[in-house]
Write a structure and sequence with these properties.
The complex is a heterodimer of chains A (346) and B (78). Chain A is built from eleven helices and twelve strands. In chain A, the strands form three sheets. Chain A has a six-stranded mixed sheet, sandwiched between helices. A four-stranded mixed sheet of chain A has the order 9-11-7-12, covered by helices on one side. In chain A, β5, α5 and β6 form a beta-alpha-beta unit. Chain B has 78 residues and is of the alpha/beta class. Helices cover 42% and strands 15% of the residues of chain B. In chain B, 45% of the residues are buried. The chains are: A alpha/beta (346), B alpha/beta (78).
């Protein structure tokens, strides 16, 4: 069986950063991790190694990914292996992208490895089988062993167990199985185990959220510029930025007049799919309280009301998406020298 | 979103009717909004009282903004 293995200029033995612009080339003699994989896979597998500079990939990603797909097609590859990329951002991006391209265009499995904090892990864990690795390449042998183990199973067409059983990062794929006992019994057994301090395994892991310390005002509130941010989905009528009603990934910044005492229902609407929109459509100030903040501005409680509000729809938002949106809005606020925020949610 | 704003050093108050959820998720400064579809006021009462409610909510929010909090705090304004 043929396997194509994608690696970068460093693991391909070409050099370090100074060789990061090396274009893609293919070789039949496995090099670096590809040689390690070949030894682990043993007889019955032959390798084509793709070597590409990380910067070259970054600037020519579609072309390079396309060429790797084409090579897999020509060679009738059984699967694609990439990296492992450990914690490298550019290399991780390259490995993830070629895996995703091959999996999507050819329907063959793709296997790679990344450190759990690799910034692109979240982007690609659904498209490839990504194994957890150490942060640095010292964990190469271990990573290759894990990757080869799964590659053999995939090549043999074996049915895989759960992500937890096989050891790769969960891909978000649900497979229906029939359990021996019904849910009521299983949950009571779990509860008994928990109460008696015996080990148990949850069927649905709950995402554990990190703690972030609260920021503090850096100047008196009477001198502060305050902005309104909302996840209630208020947008100018017509939703010009086409923000989605569920699982929104976009947000908008909407300016209003410095003179306006309040927002008008005729100018705005909410596109949030998760609550009764009638009140906010009639009176947008219920979710973007320009009217109230304007009064506090006149009273001198706050220095000024920033004449732009920032909006997205919060319902159905994955945590990582909300974090990304929050970070982008935060950067926009800092650029506008906003000192504090009133954030409303529905 | 609230935590991201905190992370970037922008103090913020979250006004929402879903205070338990907000606290569980780790938002730091929370003011209890009136109701889910209209957190900053009440359309079922007189306009005068509606405005009063809005002023109380935001007034408490501004108080909370100026407080040095160390852990999630939920405040009832009305």
């Amino acid at each position: 069986m043929k396997i194509v293995h994608y690696i970068n200029q460093y693991f391909g033995g070409l050099g370090g950063e100074e060789k990061a612009d090396e274009p893609l080339h293919f070789t039949e003699s496995p090099v670096g991790p590809a040689r390690g994989m070949q030894q682990l896979m043993g007889e019955g597998f032959s390798f084509v190694t793709a070597v590409c500079g990380d910067n070259y990939f970054n600037s020519n990603s579609e072309a390079v990914a396309g060429a790797v797909v084409q090579k897999c097609r020509e060679e009738k590859a059984a699967l694609l292996v990439a990296g492992p990329a450990f914690n490298a951002g550019r290399y991780g991006q390259a490995c993830g992208a070629v895996c995703a391209a091959v999996a999507e265009k050819l329907g063959i499995p793709a296997v790679t490895g990344m450190y759990h904090e690799n910034p692109v892990l979240e982007t690609y864990r659904r498209n490839a089988y990504i194994f957890p690795t150490t942060e640095m390449a010292a964990g190469m042998n271990d990573a290759l062993k894990k990757m080869a183990g799964l590659a053999k199973k995939l090549a043999a067409g074996e049915i895989l167990g759960t992500a937890a059983e096989e050891g790769y990062f969960p891909r978000g794929i649900r497979r229906e199985v029939v359990r021996n006992e019904d849910g009521a019994k299983r949950v009571v057994d779990m509860l008994m185990a928990k109460l008696e301090s015996r080990p148990f395994a949850t069927e649905i892991p709950i995402y554990v959220l990190e703690k972030v310390p609260p920021a503090q005002l850096k100047k008196p509130l009477s001198e502060a510029k305050v902005a309104i941010v909302t996840v209630g989905g208020l947008v100018p009528k017509g939703n010009p930025d086409k923000i989605r009603s569920f699982g929104a990934e976009r947000w908008g910044a909407y300016a209003f007049s410095d003179d306006s005492p309040a927002l008008l229902g005729s100018d705005y609407e909410t596109i949030h799919g998760g609550y009764n929109p009638n009140f906010v459509n009639a009176n947008p100030n219920y979710v973007v309280p320009v009217n109230i903040l304007r009064e506090y501005e006149m009273l001198g409680t706050i220095g000024s009301l920033h004449p732009v509000f920032y909006s997205t729809a919060g319902v159905g938002g994955a945590v990582v998406v909300c974090q990304k949106t929050g970070a982008e809005i935060a950067k926009a606020l800092l650029e506008s020298k906003v000192d504090a925020v009133i954030l409303t949610a529905t | 979103m609230s935590k991201e704003l905190d992370r970037y050093g922008i103090p913020n108050v979250l006004i929402t009717a879903m205070t338990t959820l907000a606290k569980n998720v780790g938002a730091n400064r929370i003011v209890a909004g009136t109701k889910i579809p209209h957190p900053c006021g009440d359309p079922t009462v007189s306009p005068k009282r509606d405005r009063e409610i809005g002023m109380l909510l935001l007034g408490k929010s501004f108080e909370l903004l100026q407080k040095r909090v160390e852990a999630p705090v939920i405040v009832q304004a009305v």
